[in-house]
Amino acid sequence: MESQIVTGILSYGMSGRVFHAPFVDVHPAFRFYAVTERSQKKASERYPGIISFDTVEDLLNDPAIELVIINTPNHTHFEYAKKALEAGKHILVEKPFAATLAEAKELFELGKEKNLQVMVYQNRRWDSDFQSVKAVVESGSLGRLIEVNFRFDRYKKDLSPKYFKEQALPASGLSYDLGPHILDQVISLFGKPLSFNKTLATFRSGSEVDDYFHIHLNYPEGLNVFVTAGLLIANPLPSFVLHGTNGSYHKKRTDVQEEQLDKGISPADPSYGIEPDGSEGVLALFNASGEKVLQYNTAVKGNYSRLFEAVYEAIRLNVAFPVKEEEILAQMEILEQ
């Protein structure tokens, strides 16, 4: 393909290896050009010919690079995003986009000033389980929505060996780790809430950051949305539970993309993103006779490639990126307060 987007990734840790490099590599619109690897040089084992810079600054100073993927620790996102924009690069920033609403606004404004794309990597919009939930909501089959619950349950009692996940740094804690995923899904469906209430807590011994959060979002027409995540949930509840005037929908967290990518399965593999049998969502409705009828919904294929397709369209075709500025600002307002 002519005029490929020459792309550099700031880190080749788990995020770079799993969530970014495979997609930049297989998509014909991108040229996977460089990464930053401060110590171990592993990227070339899978991607021969790639440049491995020793520092972020070296990568940002390379004039060939047009797009920079910022996937460094949370507290560095704003600094590196700003430097990349000042170096004339389009940016795709991992969640959380920034630590504060003010930082987020500054980056978006700087992008407009320099005529550069500022994009946020909210990949879980393209999870198969969320796509299933979105389809049910948009179908209107539940009627008027009354209550919606989105959860992200994990059990990780031991503290992370990564210092930036456990120290009280900007944009640290579970609310800034998993919160952006769930909040983005909610905001993409329902928009900015009228109001919200947030609870943060720390339960693991020795941690300096929150490892539990619960957010109650209030929407028009009495819709209540509850967002919850915890690191000490031994028996996870369904991740998506929706109740409406016509019925209910339950869906477990069943997207397989992260697991497949971690095993080295390519996004181009025919099996990629397909949920296993038995993962169906359950739609409960009442028929004309007043009997409850259960319908088992098979999710569409999960596909993070659609996010990278959107990145290409934003840079080359000037198509609006689907993760909108106002949605990210609404998310940041909730995270920061």
What this model shows, in words?
Helix 4 (77-86) links the parallel strand 4 and strand 5 (90-94). The chain contains twelve helices and 14 strands. The mean pLDDT is 96. Helix 5 packs antiparallel against helix 12 (325-336) and helix 9 crosses helix 12 (325-336). Strands 8-9-10-7-11-12-13-14 form an eight-stranded mixed sheet, covered by helices on one side. A six-stranded parallel sheet has the order 3-2-1-4-5-6, with helices on both faces. It folds into two domains: 5-123 and 306-318, NAD(P)-binding Rossmann-like Domain (Rossmann fold, 3-Layer(aba) Sandwich), CATH 3.40.50.720; 128-301, Dihydrodipicolinate Reductase, domain 2, CATH 3.30.360. With 337 residues, it is an alpha/beta fold.
Note the total helix count: 12
The name of the CATH topology of the largest domain is: Dihydrodipicolinate Reductase, domain 2
| Number of extended strands | 14
Arrangement of strands in the largest sheet: 8-9-10-7-11-12-13-14
CATH superfamily of the largest domain: Dihydrodipicolinate Reductase, domain 2
Quick one: CATH class of the largest domain?
Alpha Beta
**CATH architectural name of the largest domain:** 2-Layer Sandwich
The helix-strand sequence is EHEHEHEHEHEHEHHHEEEEEHEEHH
End-to-end separation in angstroms reads 45 Å
Structural class: alpha/beta
Global outline: globular
Query: How many structural units, i.e. domains?
Result: 2
Largest sheet: 8 strands, mixed
Relative strand content: 15-25%
- What integer is the average pLDDT? 96
Low-confidence stretches: none
Helical proportion? Answer: 25-40%
C-alpha Rg (nearest Å): 20 Å
